[in-house]
Amino acid sequence: MWKYSSVFRFSIDLFFTRTVSDSVAFSVLLYLRMKILLDYQTAVGGISTGVGVYTEYLTEALKQRLGEDLILARRRTDKPIQTILERLYWEQAGVLAHLHRHRPRVFHSPGFSLPFFYSGCCVATAHDIAVYKYPSYMRTPLSRFYWRRVVPQSLRKAAHIIAVSGYTRTNLVEYLRIPERKITVIHSGISRAFTYREDASERVFSRWKVKNFILFVGSFEERKNLLNLVKAYSLFLQRGGDAYLFLAGGRKGTYAEEVSRLIHQLRLEDKVILSGYVTRDELVDLYSAAGLLFFPTLEEGFGFPPLEAMACRCPVIASRRDPFLELLSGAALLVNPLDIEEMALSLQRIYSSIDLRLLLIVRGLECASQYTWEKTADATLAVYQKLCD
Q1: pLDDT digits (tens, 9 = 90+) for 259-290
Q2: Three-class HEC string of the chain
Q3: CA–CA separation, 211 vs 232, rounded Å?
Q4: What gap in Å lies between CA 200 and CA 223, rounded to an integer?
Q5: Which of 47, 75, 218, 282 is the most buried (most CB within 10 A)?
């Protein structure tokens, strides 16, 4: 088998002699380049979901390393994909068209699924398997088909899988029977945009008329455990606690309606702020101004908000579950997300102890600094290179 150096010398000979056509020489040079096609569509539209954040920042870091050898596949419109049908059409037809046009060495899907009718080298990133633990997410026949057929088949088809945490890798092996040897754990990073801002409180007050608040960031879904969060917050207030609860994130659907009803039943309308999705800039301000971030989710693959908050000097309460046992390394106050009493006590502990707050801030900054997109990109490139070799 030819060494890369031999192929390189041969390709130079091809260009400087007229014994072969230019097209053949061009084909040899394409072989030498590690040309990567990455599905960028999940980052389009300005809605910062976990997969979208991963795609956006990983792409930015990879672009610095690969330059023009990184090609992005996306639709012509700036509108995000919102339905399973749109997603299926894009992944099975739109992406396939880009693959045939660019013929990359490696195709990388940051969002689980791969085109069925493509036989080239593919990498898929798996973020979590929450949908399999909470089947209520698969509400329609099409969504059940997508998650039960398309995604598992895609992951089995992939030449390699990137898992964003060791917890996700364990779940892939256990729930989807993916061989562990084809999975590499590569932690996601935290953008340098997330840093403490001294004047953030003034902007938050100007925008939402609130000071001294407990922050939650995320979508309104069952696994985010918002009902228990609101109950624990209510208990905290009953015991003399004094802070608002700020819920930042998407709030559509049946579960969001349940959360709104509970807030009404507990007469907390004047104490809870429901902001909907916020911009990246507003999010940095919220982290910097918040008294703490409360993130009691039941299921995550990685979980950006705790690490983003830590980078902004915001103390964190999170679930005493993986992946936080793996990722937060003693930098957060961890609680049982099913124990409302313990959750309420954790709020009291942070608000009654300056020493605990300072300890969490210092440890949080150190913890967040370990997760960079440069590390993520370098490890991802190592996977590409291994497949190319």
Answers
A1: 999 999 999 999 999 998 899 999 999 999 99
A2: CCCHHHHHHHHHHHHHCCCCCHHHHHHHHHHHCCCEEEECHHHCCCCCCHHHHHHHHHHHHHHHHHHHHEEEECCCCCCCCCCHHHHHHHHHHHHHHHHHHHCCCEEEECCCCCCCCCCCCEEEEECCCHHHHCHHHCCCHHHHHHHHHHHHHHHHHCCEEEECCHHHHHHHHHHHCCCHHHEEECCCCCCCCCCCCCCHHHHHHHHHCCCCEEEEECCCCHHHCHHHHHHHHHHHHHCCCCCEEEEECCCCCHHHHHHHHHHHHCCCCCCEEEEECCCHHHHHHHHHHCCEEEECCCCCCCCHHHHHHHHCCCCEEEECCCCHHHHCCCCCEEECCCCHHHHHHHHHHHHHCHHHHHHHHHHHHHHHCCCCHHHHHHHHHHHHHHHHC
A3: 20
A4: 30
A5: 218
CA distance 302 to 230: 23
Distances (CA, A) of 44 to 74, 164, 186, 308, 328: 8, 21, 23, 21, 29
pLDDT at 48: 64
Least confident piece of the model among 83-92, 157-166, 231-240? 83-92
Residue tagged 């919220």 (tokens):
286
Q: Is the pTM of this model over 0.85?
A: yes
- Strand ranges of the sheet holding 316-319, from the earlier edge strand across to the other edge: 272-276, 244-248, 213-217, 292-295, 316-319, 333-335
Q: What is the pLDDT of residues 155-198, one digit of tens each?
A: 999 999 999 999 999 999 999 999 999 999 999 999 999 999 99
Residues 6+ apart with CB under 8 A from 8: 32
* HSE, side-chain direction, 13 A CA sphere, residue 92: 11
